[in-house]
Hints:
This protein is an all-alpha fold. The chain has helices at residues 2-33, 39-64, 72-94, 99-123.
Amino acid sequence: MINGIFHAHSGVRYLVLIAALVAVIVLAMGAFGRRPFGKASRISLAAFTGLLDLQITLGIIMVIFGCFYGALMGHMMMMILAAVAAHGLSVYARKQADPRRAHTIALVGVALALALIVGGIGAIGRSPVGTTGRATCTAAGNPSASNPA
């Protein structure tokens, strides 16, 4: 079971990165094109933060099922800070009366979250787009993680 959750967690990261890229493009176009903070901006932010929340939930489930080793502390802290940045600046952006300011604040939130995500992935010795092919829960002494079901 942990192996399936690990692979889901590993796969969702690509969706998070794609959603972040889309959000950056939409928000940059809104900020530099002086467009209203409308549906496209809200949807791109919601997709990014929602996928980030799913990713964190999968990570927490992995830890609950015994996948934990020392390097995960830095990883978890960076990812939680990324979610706080994304959510906090998204909420703050929606409260702005000036659409350009709203887009800029949301764009900073996504960029900050992305920087924290990349740092968090680096904390466990990985790259944002690389793969290992197997679960790393074996470092926590969980032998079932290395045996795919």
